[in-house]
């Protein structure tokens, strides 16, 4: 009889399966789980291994010294890294437009007039419609006084303020007009120019200035001129307030940034793709080379820097030279990235097109041998590197009730999506692909403009709801839930995450529940549906995923509340039966590799 532990060091999680082996019989005693310490495949992992082993041993009252053998995964054939590159930018020249979402603009409606400094109002002698410009040096009370005292010949149509005092000014006006505030660089607003201003009511967005014909009506433009204001109207879509100033030179442009090319190198041929052609073209390039040896970015461009960063990080971690690090796979995804508008005057942001990339390098068995040796010395227990990860994962996955060979699995982790397939004769074929849970969180983080990766992880894991009153919330699927006791006022009228235990976590600054949901679901589809199909095509005996019948999904991302359904749905188009694994009938989709490692000990008995 002997006690063995299978230890799976993943990018995110270190998992343990503890078992007792007697001859050909194996009995699983406990599982352990803990976060991986350091980057997968480096000596820093040892701490995490200790914690996860401890976690399992404690459950059954065993000590390290009771163990006869430890198997760790041949791990780290893959290490993923993700990066984001913006490929378009919006530039405003000569300040023709202000569009932003000040938190408390004053008044609502539309106004058209000539821009005039508030302190110059009294000097106007002719009949005139004006838009008043209020710099920070004039306080709200003074500004309101000057505006109320303006002479009969002057009709005030609206105001643009530098400070955050829109409401304070409006409250003091005898005749209410729309006021846009928080325009930081007010000195860039040209004076004596024709100006149109729009503030939308609470909860809505501008509708006249975001429409080219709306602008044309206000400024009486010809059809030629109307064509030129299209980018201006576009840049104001979705904002609460906007100003358009008719200056002789002004313009808004969307420019494409040269992102550089990516070259996919195979043993027989290579292809080159422009990054700014988008993710789909890049992925066609990747798919056209069956045996990728390396992927390189054009030197001196964003693409080059991005892939160079991956290489540099990996070279550091593995004590190798940068040129010896080969990129084996890459997942490119089209995304958006909020960027400050160049030449803007009110800190305008625009959602620019970007490409997100997850890259993966191959590291070697040597790395794991070193970890095994150090572990063995510290624990005084023999530690072996036991078999390739995907191989072990399939052994573990086969403990899911109702499965048998032939079977394919998709292991959806943090850094990579791995697939393997076993035929009736027990032969295994496997593939590791870049892009998994971390990539999903990164896309959510950048598209929603979050500072914090952890918050993006939470948005990935939990559904959203809107707190409509202190006694009820509206879930994202439309159902209402009522409460007996009032909810905390801090969540009132906010978009919240609904955690498993019912806790409501407010998402500060997030206005639309629909948008959070849409960004979240799109990110999951872009990464996991793409990678499930891509990985199964690669392991299919014919190269066509249709020739696979059964697929089991394992790994942490298979715990997700919607990813497995999305993948099941997409794979049913290929007539594949796919579902979430349940390792040993009790572990859910977790612990497949660790279980497989322990099982491998029996076979060698
Ligand atoms: P690895 O094998 O690379 O260590 P895991 O199999 O532990 O990875 O999976 C980690 C990934 O699973 C992370 O991206 C994490 O965000 C994700 N994950 C973990 N739990 C959940 C959950 N409940 N819902 C969605 N994703 C989850
Ligand atoms: Mg894993």
UniProtKB/TrEMBL annotation:
DD-reactivating factor swiveling domain boundaries: 92-252
Domain Diol dehydratase reactivase ATPase-like: 273-600
Domain of life: Bacteria
Pfam family, one: DDR_swiveling
Protein name per its UniProtKB record: Diol dehydratase reactivase subunit alpha
Species in which this protein is naturally found: Candidatus Anaerobutyricum stercoris
């Amino acid at each position: 009889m002997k006690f063995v532990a299978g230890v799976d060091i993943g990018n995110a999680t270190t998992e343990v399966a503890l078992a007792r082996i007697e001859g050909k019989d194996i009995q699983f005693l406990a599982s352990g789980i803990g976060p991986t310490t350091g980057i997968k495949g480096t000596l820093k992992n040892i701490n995490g291994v200790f914690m996860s082993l401890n976690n399992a041993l404690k459950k059954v009252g065993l000590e390290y010294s009771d163990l006869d053998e430890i198997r760790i995964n041949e791990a780290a054939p893959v290490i993923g890294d993700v990066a984001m590159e913006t490929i378009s930018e919006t530039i405003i020249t000569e300040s023709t437009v202000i569009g932003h979402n000040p938190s408390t603009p004053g008044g609502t409606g539309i106004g058209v007039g000539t821009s005039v400094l508030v302190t110059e109002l009294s000097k106007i002698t002719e009949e005139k419609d004006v838009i008043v410009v209020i710099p920070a040096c004039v306080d709200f009370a003074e500004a309101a006084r000057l505006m109320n005292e303006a002479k009969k010949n002057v009709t005030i149509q609206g105001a643009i303020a530098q400070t955050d005092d829109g409401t304070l000014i409006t409250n003091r006006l005898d005749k209410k007009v729309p006021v846009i505030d928080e325009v930081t660089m007010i000195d860039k607003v040209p004076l004596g120019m024709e100006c149109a201003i729009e503030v939308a009511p609470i909860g809505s967005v501008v509708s006249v200035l975001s429409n080219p014909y709306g602008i044309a009506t206000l400024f009486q433009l010809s059809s030629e001129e109307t064509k030129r204001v299209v980018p201006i109207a576009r840049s104001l879509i979705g904002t609460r307030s906007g100003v358009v100033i008719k200056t002789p030179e002004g313009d808004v442009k969307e420019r494409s940034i040269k992102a550089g090319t990516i070259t996919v190198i195979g043993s027989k041929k290579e292809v080159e793709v422009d990054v700014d052609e988008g993710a789909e073209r890049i992925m066609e390039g990747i798919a056209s080379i069956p045996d990728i040896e390396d992927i390189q970015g054009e030197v001196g461009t964003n693409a080059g820097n991005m892939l160079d960063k991956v290489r540099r990080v990996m070279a550091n971690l593995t004590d190798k030279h940068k040129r010896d690090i080969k990129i084996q796979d890459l997942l490119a995804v089209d995304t958006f990235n909020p960027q400050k508008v160049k030449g803007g005057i009110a800190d305008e942001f625009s959602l620019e097109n970007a490409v997100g990339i997850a890259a993966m390098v191959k590291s070697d068995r040597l790395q794991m041998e070193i970890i095994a040796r150090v572990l063995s010395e510290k624990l005084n227990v023999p530690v072996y590197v036991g078999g390739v990860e995907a191989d072990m994962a399939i052994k573990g996955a086969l403990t899911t009730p109702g499965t048998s060979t032939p079977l394919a699995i998709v292991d959806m982790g943090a850094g990579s999506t791995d697939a393997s397939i076993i035929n009736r004769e027990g032969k295994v074929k496997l593939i590791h692909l870049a892009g998994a849970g971390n990539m999903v969180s990164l896309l959510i983080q950048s598209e929603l403009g979050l500072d914090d990766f952890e918050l993006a992880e939470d948005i990935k894991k939990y559904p959203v709801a809107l707190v409509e009153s202190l006694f009820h919330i509206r879930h994202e699927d439309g159902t209402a839930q009522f409460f007996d006791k009032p909810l905390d006022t801090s969540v009132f009228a906010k978009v919240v995450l609904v955690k498993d235990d019912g806790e409501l976590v407010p998402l500060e600054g997030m206005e639309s529940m629909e948008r959070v949901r849409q960004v979240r679901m799109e990110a999951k589809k872009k990464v996991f549906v793409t990678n499930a199909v891509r990985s199964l095509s690669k392991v299919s005996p014919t190269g066509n995923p249709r020739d696979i019948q059964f697929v089991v999904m394992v790994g942490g991302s298979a715990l997700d509340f919607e990813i497995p359904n999305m993948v099941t749905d997409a794979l049913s188009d290929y007539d594949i039966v796919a579902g979430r694994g349940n390792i040993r009938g009790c572990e859910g989709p977790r612990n497949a590799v660790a279980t497989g490692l322990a099982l491998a000990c029996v076979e060698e008995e």
